Amino acid sequence: MKTVFLDRDGTLIVDPADERVDSIEKIELFPDSIEALRYLADNDFNVVIITNQAGIAEGRISEEDFWKIHSVVLDKFSESGIHILKTYMNNEAPGAISDLRKPAPGMLLQAAKDFNLNLSEIYMVGDSQSDILAGINAGCKGSILVKTAPNHDVISPDAIYTARDLLEAVVFVVEN
Ligand SMILES: [Mg+2]
Questions:
Q1: Fewest CB within 10 angstroms: 4, 122, 125, 171, which?
Q2: What is the whole-number distance in angstroms between the Cα of residue 73 and the centre of ligand 1?
Q3: What is the whole-number distance in angstroms between the Cα of residue 53 and the centre of ligand 1?
Q4: Angle 171-173-176 (CA atoms, 0-180°, nearest 5)?
Q5: Distance 52 CA to ligand 1 centre (A)
Q6: Are strands 123-126 and 2-6 parallel, antiparallel or unpaired?
Q7: Where residue 36 falls among pLDDT bands split at 50, 70, 90?
Q8: Residue 77: enclosing H or E segment and its boundaries?
């Protein structure tokens, strides 16, 4: 089973300036998200979403509301015929000592266990250094940075590849 791990905020959907996707109104897909997901599906890739949601620990959003908003995101994908294999979410605060919150690899390791995945064949794609390090810490094939964070100025020497956007990233995933 070919699989790819994708971050959500700043990678699949726009990370708002206030970094809070805390209402359905604030869900905005990137213009190429559907095309990128379809390209993965057409090439027999399963997609697993790996997302940190510190806003829950910080009291900015409830866990219940996160899942409500996330289900609307998934509906937008499924309307286009795209199925997400599973979403792993961590609700801890930045700086928490955690085996799960990216850059820790716990969510990726759990996905590998749940779906019997070979991590050395899987790329992690995300817009922040914590995504890049989570992929490396999990023993993934490599981590790909997408330059779609709110300020577009993230750089990562640890990324195996840096893509302008998600579509460019998934082309690399499929071809490599
Ligand atoms: Mg992100």
A1: 171
A2: 15
A3: 10
A4: 100
A5: 8
A6: parallel
A7: very high
A8: helix 63-79
Predicted pLDDT of residue 20: 85
Distance (Å) from CA 81 to ligand 1 centroid? 24
Q: Which of 7, 15, 127, 131 is catalytic?
A: 7
pLDDT score for 18? 81
Q: Identify the residue whose tokens are 């790819």.
A: 4
- Ordered by start, the domain boundaries in the chain are 2-175
The CATH number of 2-175 is: 3.40.50.1000
Q: 98: buried, middle or exposed (CB in 10 Å: 19+, 13-18, 0-12)? A: middle
Looking at residue 151, what is its pLDDT? 79
Q: Find the mean pLDDT for residues 44-56.
A: 97
Q: pLDDT value at position 19?
A: 79
Q: Tokens 């995101």 label which residue?
A: 73
User: For residue 2, which amino acid is it?
Assistant: K
Q: Is 7 a catalytic residue?
A: yes
